[in-house]
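Recap from last week: sequence in, structure out.
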Amino acid sequence: MNMKSILCAAAATSSMMLLASDTPEVSNVTMTQASFGRQVTIAYQLSNAPDGAVVTLDVQTNRTGAVTANDADWISIGGEAVCNAQGDVWKKVAQGSHTITWRPDLSWEGHKIEFANGGARAVVTAWALDNTPDYMVVDITQAAQPNTQRYYPSVDFLPGGLLGKDEYRTTSIVMRKIMAKDVTWTMGSTTLETLRTESREATHQVTLTNNYYIGVFPVTQAQWGLIQTSNNAPSSYDNAADRAMHPVERVCYNEIRNSVNSTTANPTYNWPHNPNPGSFLGNLRTKSGIDFDLPSEAQWEFAARAGNGDTKWGDGTGILNGAQDDNLDRLGRYKDGDNTPSTAIVGSYAPNSWGLYDTAGNVWEWCLDWHADDITEIGGKVNIAPTDPTSTLTGTEAKSRVFRGGSKGETAAACRPARRDPGQHTRRYDVVGFRLCCTAGLR
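Predicted C-alpha cells:
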C-alpha cells in the first residue's frame, strides 16, 4: 500500500514520573496524509504539563499485517526515517493543541509500507522537564538563542546521524543523559591494573545524587572558537590543517571556568559559585541558557566506565595492562611505540557502552575538582562535586585540579578510566582539553 493511502493508527505515551499528577499526558493523536503529495500531518493534545514538556515522535508499523492495539505487534520504522519531522516536536512545548508534519519521502524516495490490512501509527511521547530524552543537541552558532536545545530519544534519531554531520562536532554540542541518581558504585582501581598509584586510585564507594548530561565528544577547537571568540585557544602544532573537529587543547582550567582573557586565578568563581561570566563556561551559559560546567571526577569516571567495573575499558573489554593494548586500539588514540601521534578528530574511534567517544586517550580532560592525592577523601554521598573545590585544601594541592582519561602521548596503561593526574589550574598543557556536563533540569 502506498503511503498516500496509509491507514493510520495513533498512540500516545508519557515519560515516567514519581507522581502520576506530575506526568504530562498526550491524547487525541491523529495521523493523516494528503490525497496529493506526501506530507503527513500528526495532531495531538498535551495536558497536565503547566510548565510544558518535551515532545518526541516515532512512527511504527505492525508486525502482524493487521492493525492491533497490542504494542508488541508494532515496530519502529527507525529514527533515521522520522528525524526530519518538524513543528511541535523534538523540543519543549506548552500544553494545548499541537501539530507535527513529516515527509517520509525525504527519508526514502518512493517509499512504501506494504500490509495486507494496512497500518502505521504515530507515537507521540511527552517527557517531563526533569526527565528529558537521552540526547540533547545545543546550537552554538552566532544566531543561536537560549533555551532552544533539541531532544531525541536515541542516537538513531539525530538528523543526518551523529557522525554523518560535521555540525555535531563544530556548531552544535551533543549531550548524552547519564542515569546516575542514587547509584552506588566502586570508584578507583585494584592491584589488577598496573601503572596505578594506590592512594590516587584506591577503591571506594560513591553514590551519585543526580542524573546529568555529559558531552558525547570532548569540546573541539571549532566549538571553543564559537564561544570564546575573544580568546581563541592555540591549535596544536600537529593538526593545524584540519583543526576544527580535533579536541581543543592548551586551555587552562581558569580559562574554562574562572578567568576571562588571562590565566590569573579568581577564587570568586570557584565551584559551587557560577563560572566567570567571561570564561568559556560563562559565555556558553549565556548563549544556551543551560547550566554547563565541567564534570566532577565522580561524574567523569562513572560516565567513562559506562557500567563496566575495574579491569575493564568503557566498552567492557579487558584492560591488558601493557604499553600497547589491542582492546584500546578500538577506543582511543594513545602512544604507539616510540611515536607520539597527532590528536584524532573526535569520534574517530569506537564509543564506550553508553555512546561516549574519546574517554580513553586523545587528550586528557579537566574535571571540576581540586586534586587530592588520596582519592578516598572524595568518597561517600556526592552531589555535583565529590570534593568541594572551596574545601580546606591548601598549599600546592589547592593549586592543582584533576584531569582524566590519558592522551595521545601516553601508553595504554595511562589511559585507564581510574587514572587521575594533577594539573596547575593556571597552566596550558599541550594534550589537555575537556568535555561538558550539565543537569539541564534533571533530577
